[in-house]
């Protein structure tokens, strides 16, 4: 047995090289996202590396073993399963400028690992368009894509029936507005506004992502009487919000505040609380089933959002309709809203 490394500028190209070079003899043992070069953490180039274990006793180990098309879907599924079943370690690290140990910073329990495994699944066994079915403007409108993206799609060749449209969709969505990074500076306040349960869920996800103490999450609501959130972590009036903000300025880490602000209700109160909190960033927790026109109006009433976290995506035929709001989408059911994640979400609907 021996370890072989394949490296490239994106994960898809690295996996393609692994498959072409080693085929079914490869066992993925590690996948890394590297940042090379740069000065003081800036201008670094991101690259991906996959480490595979090769059975040198296999006489065909050195031969390319691309699964022939005539072997059908079962062969592809078998190959994909072999990779996924053995992918047991993923790290996200800076490659040191000088020789020395690299410190893994991402475990298999974090979102980056799930994203990489999702990318492997999509790349090795993505949905294909049924024979005779092509993607046209009506199909793109049905899943909710805005008109400017549909026009861009119409200006070039669409994927052929019987092919996987994932790469085409990823390129099409590459120009989506990007949510700004979550602030992490001293005294920062991150507000998450939305219906109670959705706002709390997104706020907890952000708290975990930033490595903050979950017991530090604050909930703002004029009428909450539950026991899940203690009184000392509640804000019920505008005056309390202003007083709390004054003390939070001295905190070394950000404070995350979930505001109970369902669409069409308590908007004036929520807007006043948001203003009193002087937030560094404001996110909206939205339901994918709501009309984009209603979401945009609600966002305007609350003073605007830096980004949206969208949930309940499985319960709508047009998950991309939220993009018509013109507000960057930062999370899709808790996962980073990358073009790859959007493509994975939409391709299944277009291929059905």
Task: Tell me what the structure shows.
With 352 residues, the chain is of the alpha/beta class. The protein has 2 domains: 2-125, no CATH class; 189-336, Rossmann fold, CATH 3.40.50.300. The chain is built from 11 helices and 12 strands. The chain has an 8-stranded mixed sheet, sandwiched between helices. A 4-stranded mixed sheet has the order 1-3-2-4. A hairpin with a 2-residue loop joins strand 11 and strand 12. Helix 2 (72-86) runs antiparallel to helix 3 (111-125). The two termini are 42 Å apart. The model is unreliable at 39-43 and 58-125 (pLDDT under 50).
Describe the structure using short key phrases.
single chain, 352 residues, alpha/beta, Rossmann fold, 2 domains, eight-stranded mixed sheet, four-stranded mixed sheet, 11 helices, 12 strands, 35% helix, globular
